[in-house]
Amino acid sequence: PEGETDDKSGKGGKRRTRSPRRSARSEAIERVREWRDQDLLERKERLAQATGRLRTRRSDEGHQQFVASRPTQAEVEEPVMVKELSAAIAVKSTEIIRKLMASGVMATMNQRLEPEAAISLAAEFGVELTVHKEKSPQDRLADQFRKIDRKSLQSRPPVVTFLGHVDHGKTSLLDRIRHAHVTEGEAGGITQHIGAYRYHEGGRDVVFLDTPGHEAFTQLRSRGANMTDVVVLVVAADDGVMPQTVEAINHAKAAGVPIVVALNKIDRPNANPDRVYGQLAEQGLSPREWGGSTEVVRTSATTGEGVDSLVELLSLEAELLELKADPTIPATGTIIEAERDPARGVTARALVQEGTLKVGDVLVCGPSFGRVRSLTSDKGADVRQAGPATPVAIAGLDEVPDPGDKFYVISDLSEAKDMAEKFQATRREKELFRRQAVTLENLFSRISAGETRELPLIVKADVQGSIEVLIEQLGKLSTEEVKVRILHAAVGAVVESDVLLATASDAVIVGFHVAVDDQAQRLANERGVQIRQFRIIYELTDSVRKALEGMLSPEIREKVMGTAEVRETFKVSRIGTIAGCLVIDGVIQRSNKIRLIREGIVVQEELSMESLRRFKDDAREVRAGLECGIKLAGYDDLKLGDRLQAWTTEEVARTL
Ligand code: GDP
Which ligand 1 atom is nearest residue 168's CA? Predict the structure, then answer.
């Protein structure tokens, strides 16, 4: 329909359509999608055939054992050589090579296969193959650390994050816990801010992450750094469950972290615990007092009431969770925050999670590396070492790592340097990628650059009913000019495949009452795919509408005024061709632009008139049914039967 007039509104309704570049592009995307679907289908068929053939062979030749030992699914990591493929799918290399040769590829054991080719080959042997991206040195390091035999596992304290609605008392509670403790126990009385704080008293140890708020929590989590063992959900007894409370609950649930509720501000006269209990139960956090399984502690950061019980409960929770770590393995942990100080260099505040970090250890940490020069405890003391679940400020790294970066102690300094450099290189690549990705916010600027007139969305929701409502509501937002295009809508959490689809089609993912899978979040961050979560339909549609309105902004609406048909042409020397026309529709105005249409094809888009005449007189406009003479400016190639469509532009308010 692009390039044609809008029939419904007749002569007055045509709007400037999407740029041809954009439509070519969306066509291309469409095509790729079709190919991909086709490809998957074919692959499935091949799989079915292959397994079918094996089945016959099994009964014919009795190769039962051979067939039974071949997996139906397998995984390999890039780069895939024939050798690796052979091992993964339990098919002899020679058989694979024979297959390759049959399709005209001369191969050896060490032939490198493109992932697509490997997948296709595997399918021929009835194996569904997944090819994983090549791992970064850090990924390998993480794998190595995961595989270390932990012989001296010991209990460790829980790591706790305070979440909740703003002003419900997160900071006050944290301060209270620390303050009470410090004034009793510490000589200096003032603790250092190092991103986390370890409470230690009466045999109870609890580590509190000092960055209350969802952003920090989610940011760390999205980077794969799930440091938190228990979330303390702070709810003000006089205010109850608020939007950010719900968000906090969802974050904690998404991370699979148990929740303990601190019903704070219990000292307030208008505190209403019963009401809050009801609200918590509605959120699936039924209080134990009510027969549910959620621990709720009534606290007041102001009077100190319940604060001890909270700490006690948290240390009990740790026993239930059976948290353990081995202090004897090489140390590893996560950066909470880091900065560069002109005098002291880089300071990284981190939590040691396993092993024991010592002064002099060689560290690799995201983009940075170095030898530990000094360690400072949360009490501001210089320490020689820090064991599991210990917050510590590390000096000695060469670069500033990001919150959520993991650190690992390794033996070789030059190896650490190598890894840090590789990390920096891949991060630069990812940055590039990220900058090109679409978010609801940056759509506006992309649209002004004339790049898109369509908002592709992937919708994930809790139940089918929500999806139907969302599709209907979002559909209503589309106009002729800007469209919501729903690429995929399904029930369930946002998962990796959604992010991949979004990457492939520059889409934004909207989630309605659903969680975001950890891997999906990580991938989304890597690829710069935006995932927006909503709990209220209005907020979702509003957000999308704003994005679409942004898409409308740079636009000018075109209005078709009328059409004239060329009935005669006169060549006049020194002037050019004058067309004798009949206005067949609407009105032609002297000031209009002219589109020349020949046999249904637009030959010229934007001509102007040198003169418009009725008989011998200049006319300002000529209406349908009347004849007129038109001389186009700088254009004489007119033929009988040509149509001259008169159009103008108008500014229209930019709302949907
Ligand atoms: P955050 O935004 O969740 O970190 O909240 P804050 O800790 O900054 O507290 C917000 C306000 O509530 C501050 O003015 C605190 O003094 C007050 N507040 C915090 N906890 C309590 C409490 O238990 N009782 C009373 N009465 N006020 C509190």
Answer: 3
pTM: 0.54
Bond prior to 158 in cis (omega within 30° of 0): no
Is residue 113 within 8 Å of residue 292, measured between CB atoms?
no
Q: Residues of the chain whose pLDDT is less than 50?
A: 1-25, 28-29, 31-33, 35-36, 47-68, 182-191, 433-448, 554, 653-654, 656
Q: Is 300 in the pocket of ligand 1 (CB under 6 A)?
A: yes
Structure tokens at 242: 């608020």
pLDDT one-digit tens code per residue, 39-65 = 555 555 554 444 433 333 333 333 333
Cβ of 264 closer than 6 Å to ligand 1, yes or no, is yes
Hey, which of 166, 167, 233 would you mutate to test ligand 1's pocket, going by the most ligand atoms within 8 Å of its Cβ?
167
Q: Is the CB of 170 under 6 A from ligand 1?
A: yes
Angle at 15 (CA atoms; ends 561, 642), nearest 5 degrees: 45
Mutation pick for ligand 1 pocket among 172, 209, 211, 231 (CB with most ligand atoms within 8 Å): 172
- Cα separation, 291 vs 274, whole angstroms: 14
Where do we find the tokens 């042409």? 569
Residue 492, Ramachandran bin (φ over 0: left; ψ between -120 and 50: alpha; else beta): left
Which residues, 6 or more positions from 373, have their beta carbon under 8 angstroms from its beta carbon? 359, 395, 396
Q: Is the CB of 503 under 6 A from ligand 1?
A: no
Q: Which residues are CB-contacts of 343 (< 8 A; sequence separation ≥ 6)?
A: none
**Residues 501-542: tens digit of each pLDDT:** 787 677 889 998 888 888 888 888 888 888 888 877 778 888
For ligand 1, is residue 171 a contact (CB within 6 Å)?
A: yes
Contacting residues for 442 by C-beta, under 8 A, at least 6 apart: none
Residue nearest to atom 16 of ligand 1 (CA): 172
Cβ partners under 8 Å of residue 563, min gap 6: 11, 583, 584, 585, 586, 643, 644, 645, 646
Q: Is 301 in the pocket of ligand 1 (CB under 6 A)?
A: yes
Judged on CB neighbours under 10 Å (0-12, 13-18, 19+), 642 is: buried
Count of CB atoms situated within 10 Å of the CB of 528:
19
User: To 10 degrees, the CA torsion angle through 466, 470, 471, 472?
Assistant: 110
